[in-house]
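Review form for a predicted model. The reviewer records the input and the model, then writes brief findings.
Reviewer: anonymous (R2)
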Amino acid sequence: MKLLIITIIAFSALVKAEQLDSELRISPRLYFNLLKAGQEEVAIPHQFPHQVFYTTDKGTYCGGTIIRNDAILTAAHCVHGLKIPSLQVIPGVHNISSPEASWQIKISKAIKIHENYSPNTYKNDIAIVSFQYPFVLDGKILNQISLYDNKATNFTGTEATASGWGWRHDSRDSLSSELHYFTSKIIPNQKCRQVYNNEVTDSIVCLDQVPGKGACHIDAGGPLYIVENNKLYQLGIFSYGEQRGCTKGKPTAYTQIPAYIDWIKNNLPKY
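Model under review:
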């Protein structure tokens, strides 16, 4: 009960957060074909039952996705250097300032960061967080996401959607308490390198942005989705974006899941 109270206070205070990580923490917005490219909208409550929001012992906030009832997928830079246990995770959350009965607050048991992760370049920006007590997945409010595993696919021109609770503008008072999503198109990595140079490797996918819309601070580690054969898949994990501001219309970069699908399978907790 004490943990629950502390967590609710922390998440309610998030809407008024004064201390934010100095590193770029951008967030995406998303779902199916509900939006045309370039549009952004507030999600329907529990529209994304696999998405989680969490806070760390460093006072930072990130997103992630449920990939098994005892594990979430997130960005390595969100959990790098943390103690164990150090994450308080809330799945099934829509409004981070309004607690719901569906919240299943969990404390991390173990964190597995990619062994070749670089905090300087954000290469291999992927991590798995596991829990001793599993989530109760009902398929509606809480569910796990399917990971896209086709390594041969060329994603250029594909519509993709990102979701999160990040800043709506380049200011602290623009934090979104409700989950938002944004749909745009994946651009060639060559075009993305014109902005981020050699940081854009072949294991990255970049999403085009529209000035004033798209990914922003706080939602690092959150998902990038695509739809194939009417099924929703997670294609990426939000990694980094334009440091001069979220509203500049610069592309955002996501760790490409197909490039790490074997690593994910090999590093999920063993039963």
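Findings: DSSP finds four helices and 14 strands in the chain.
Further findings: The first strand starts at residue 40 and ends at 42.
Recommendation: see findings above.
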